[in-house]
Amino acid sequence: MTDKKTTQAPGNNSESNDQQPGAKAAVKPNVKAAADKVSAADATAAKKAATQKAPSKNAGKKSSKGFPWIKTLLALILIGALAVAGWLGWTEWKTQIDSRAGASDSLQADMAALELKLKLQGQQQKQLSQQSLQQQSQLMGQLEDQLYSVKLRLNSQAERILQLGTASRGDWLLSEAAYLIRLANQRLQVERSIENPLAILENVDNIFVQLNDPELLPVRRALAEDIAALRMTSKIDREGIFLELEAISAAIEALTIIEPVNQTQAANPVDVENTQAPSLLDSFERFSQKLGQLIVVQKRQQPIEPLLTADEQSIIQNNIYLLLEQAQSALLKEEQIIYRSSLEKTAALLARYFQLNTQSETLIERLTILGERPVIQRLPDISGSIAAVQTMLNLRQSRITDREPQE
Q1: Any bridge partners for residue 257, and if so which?
Q2: 197: containing domain
Q3: Taking every pair of C-alpha atoms in the chain, what is the biggest distance, in angstroms?
Q4: Residue among 130, 162, 220 nearest 400 (CA)
Q5: Mean of pLDDT over the chain
Q6: pTM exceeds 0.70
Q7: How crowded is residue 223: how many other Cβ atoms within 10 Å of its Cβ?
Q8: Which of 20, 50, 65 represents a domain boundary (last residue)?
Q9: pLDDT > 90? residue 394
């Protein structure tokens, strides 16, 4: 049984040896070496030895059957790795190609945007240059207009200087008279007094007397009318009224407020020297006198008021001072109603709370007189002389300007 197995083993393994030539080549040298060592006489022993070694060969062949599958698995793994590496390489290459294409597209877009931006900047620069040119042309026009106005002003100033150079003494005096008349009108409106404007207009009349020009007769007529209007205007002595009110305010401090009357009377002393017995007639007279002192009858037109305390007396005095100051303020502002009302209230307080004596009655009477005086100053219109002198100045100036072209 063993021989058959051993003999059949090579035949069975022939296919495997054909499939694996490397293994067959490795078995043949071993067989030849074993045959050389065995002697020719002991063939059976060599055959047995060969049959004993055959299972080892079969075992070696059997053990070498799994080796091709490992190589196939390794080949498959290698092929898969190469495929994965190829796929990764192809993906990376495609990514780089795409990135380069995107970079080129973005570069082209940037170049297009830059060209558009440069084009817009060029248009803006062109517009700005056009606007600057327009502004410069407008500025040049304005400068030309200003230069023309300056030339006109210089010409008018030159004409004025020429007129001043050719003006006579009468022209200078007439200009001075016109200035003084304007000053008199301003002083009249500001100071609301007729003294200073009247004095100024009288000086202007003296200037016209020095000129002795028949052409100035209309001006002198208007000036005389204004002077007459000022002289006929009644003057209000505000300074005198103001000072008199201040004096009355100072005099009120010397007045005494009504005080209670002492009803207690001292008893009549007994005549010690008269040692004679009083007669019946003397006794009746004394009784009647004492009875007359006990019974007193007084008639009052006003209701009886309680006496004032010290605080109330100071309040009344302060009210009087405030009313007098209010009257002074109304005098300066020419407020007739407030001025009169303040003085009337002051006189009423004096008559009600102060002792009626010579001083208080005098102050009340003076306050009544001052309250009836007007405080509004009536101002005349002296604009006629201003219009007349201005007309004369315009007439003389027109004569000078008409004379210049002829010369």
Answers
A1: 354
A2: 169-235+380-406
A3: 229
A4: 162
A5: 75
A6: no
A7: 26
A8: 65
A9: no
